[in-house]
Amino acid sequence: xxxxxxxxxxxxxxxxxxxxxxxxxxxxxxxxxxxxxxxxxxxxxxxxxxxxxxxxxxxxxxxxxxxxxxxxxxxxxxxxxxxx
Length: 84
Prior knowledge:
84 residues; 2 helices; mainly alpha; single chain
């Protein structure tokens, strides 16, 4: 066993996990933005209030997406270090 080098299986698992993190982050960001858009529509906001709601939704979507990527990849790294 060559310590310090990753096997092909480990590289493939890492690639799949990165893909999963990015896709789930995009879905989460889209869902948050959709909720903000829906609230804007349901509450009948217009003008500056609608722009503010959509900007807040976009900001929270980006923050949630970044958080999701970091959380998924850190969980994967912790499991990899434990040998799972």
